[in-house]
């Protein structure tokens, strides 16, 4: 026990952990409000602070807990006909994408994550969405792309968010669809870094600090969903994405 405390103390006193706490609180509020936001904020920020192979496993473990937290209230409102094929294809493709996380150069991967989040944020700001139909083959293709991204970068959301937010459904249905999708792949995404040896003592120490922050922030965001108009929330969310992506790309 003493050896564990000695090893954990420098991690707890690291200034980067304070930055991670702030980012985690913002991501938790966004996730509770909109159904997404965890990975697209935390993947670039954690990668900047600790590197992708050290930061992404922390985010994946938190994503698992958050998905379990939000899922019960979303199942009844989600369009399972569309979301379950998306999630199934993503779950199959996630281990393939994880090979990139385990083998790619950390600096290059961090900059890719930052650039990808920047592009995603700009697309959301532009208002562009996919406006076609959602046949099963396309659901499987989008899900596969999302799974590859999930394994490699911890972010499955961008292609699925742009795809699912295209419909005419109300915000409640959009939010439920995203929550159900993320829940379907949350478990499988943890196994590649676990078997690849990336979930070590530093990851567990950081998770022990950041998980309570996330657990407290998500319900706050869920409550804000009932009272804060989307027109006020969206500019804030877009600004957060652009800052997070810019930091990872140019930091």
Task: Describe the protein's architecture and organization.
The protein is an all-alpha fold. The chain has helices spanning 2-12, 15-34, 38-50, 52-74, 80-103, 106-126, 136-153, 157-164, 171-195, 201-227, 230-250. α5 (80-103) runs parallel beside α9 (171-195) and α7 packs antiparallel against α8. It is globular and about 55 Å long. The N and C termini lie far apart (36 Å). The mean pLDDT is 84.
Low-confidence stretches: none
Task: Give the overall shape.
Answer: globular
> How does the helix and strand content classify structurally?
mainly alpha
What's the Cα radius of gyration? 17 Å
Specify the helix fraction band: over 70%
Average pLDDT over all residues:
84
Distance between the termini: 36 Å
| Number of E-type strands | 0
Q: What is the count of DSSP helices, taking H or I runs of 4+ residues?
A: 11
**SSE run:** HHHHHHHHHHH
Strand content: under 5%
What composes the largest sheet? none
Structure, briefly:
This protein is mostly helical and 251 residues long. The chain is 84% helix and 0% strand. The chain has 11 helices and no strands.
Key attributes of the depicted protein:
single chain, 251 residues, mainly alpha, globular
């Amino acid at each position: 026990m003493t050896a564990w405390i000695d090893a954990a103390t420098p991690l707890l006193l690291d200034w980067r952990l304070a930055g991670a706490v702030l980012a985690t609180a913002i991501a938790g509020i966004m996730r509770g409000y909109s159904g997404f936001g965890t990975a697209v904020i935390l993947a670039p920020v954690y990668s900047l602070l600790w590197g992708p192979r050290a930061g992404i496993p922390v985010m994946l473990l938190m994503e698992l807990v958050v998905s379990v937290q939000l899922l019960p209230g979303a199942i009844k409102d989600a369009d399972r006909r569309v979301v379950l094929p998306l999630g199934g294809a993503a779950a199959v493709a996630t281990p393939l994408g994880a090979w990139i996380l385990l083998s790619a150069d950390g600096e290059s991967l961090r900059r890719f994550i930052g650039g990808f989040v920047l592009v995603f944020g700009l697309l959301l700001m532009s208002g562009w969405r996919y406006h076609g139909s959602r046949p099963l083959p396309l659901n499987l293709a989008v899900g596969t792309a999302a799974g590859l991204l999930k394994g490699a970068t911890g972010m499955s959301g961008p292609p699925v968010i742009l795809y699912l937010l295209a419909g005419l459904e109300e915000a409640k249905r959009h939010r439920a669809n995203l929550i159900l999708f993320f829940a379907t792949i949350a478990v499988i995404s943890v196994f590649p870094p676990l078997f690849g040896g990336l979930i070590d003592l530093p990851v567990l120490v950081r998770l022990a600090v950041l998980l309570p922050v996330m657990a407290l922030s998500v319900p706050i965001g869920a409550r804000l969903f009932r009272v804060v108009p989307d027109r006020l929330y969206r500019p804030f969310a877009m600004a957060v994405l652009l800052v997070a992506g810019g930091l990872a790309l140019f930091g």
